[in-house]
């Protein structure tokens, strides 16, 4: 994809979602609400020390993450990066651009939470009202970078990569034809709005319950076994929608985070303490790139 000659190199977070996933789908015709956040992590493979994605002025895309089907929203964020890089003065239009690009070029009925999750900053609740159903053109984005659940999160890689398109098609079929699944989506949209201002414990319990319910409809998205087991973890879920290769583990106490990371690494899984990031970063083209 190429839009216009770029003046900037753009760096982007990835996104991890906690509650409300799949209510962002274009086929969902009721009110939607998603909690997700823009994250990176300190690593020698990252750019600007913590940004996992980069698009340079020559449209060369670099990622610190290996493989497709990660669940981190990379394909949608990639498309959004192109738009924001080309039209920084019109950057708010990136949401609609990605939706139209995915439908016209990729032939998918994708949603909006991936691109908003990576491009817009921080920890946020994204809501579309019921009267915007099927248009998905009005978004209320509320930021809460001090939510206590942030200090309880570990990001890990399950080492599994799924076919995101097949999983997505399965979920969209449920969304249109299974009333129990529709009730589940309706409930998670409500819970996302309720717990955005709540405690870490309430959100962790709700995330775990919502995830377990989702997996009962889509068993293919179960967390692969064996994963490290420890009483230091109070819950875990996969991030993303179709791919779901990465996951979040919630620790009992924020002081346990590095210990849990070490447990994952000892078991052969990549893991890190995610860093909340302020959305995309545009850097003048004259700067020497990493």
What does this structure look like?
The protein is an alpha+beta fold. It has one domain (8-284): Ribosomal Protein S5, domain 2. 32% of the residues lie in helices and 21% in strands. It contains 7 helices and 13 strands. The chain has helices at residues 74-86, 94-106, 113-119, 164-177, 179-195, 200-217, 257-266, and strands spanning 8-12, 14-19, 32-40, 53-55, 61-63, 123-128, 140-143, 153-157, 233-238, 246-251, 271-272, 275-276, 281-284. The strands form 3 sheets. Strands 2, 3, 6, 7 and 12 form a 5-stranded antiparallel sheet that branches. Strands 5-4-1-13 form a 4-stranded antiparallel sheet, with helices on one face. A 4-stranded antiparallel sheet has the order 9-10-8-11. The longest helix has 18 residues, at 200-217. It is globular and about 50 Å long. 46% of the residues are buried.
What's the structural blueprint in terms of helices and strands?
Blueprint: E1 8-12, E2 14-19, E3 32-40, E4 53-55, E5 61-63, H1 74-86, H2 94-106, H3 113-119, E6 123-128, E7 140-143, E8 153-157, H4 164-177, H5 179-195, H6 200-217, E9 233-238, E10 246-251, H7 257-266, E11 271-272, E12 275-276, E13 281-284
Antiparallel strand pairs: 1-4, 1-13, 2-3, 3-6, 3-12, 4-5, 6-7, 8-10, 8-11, 9-10
Helix pairs in contact: 1-2, 1-3, 4-5, 5-6
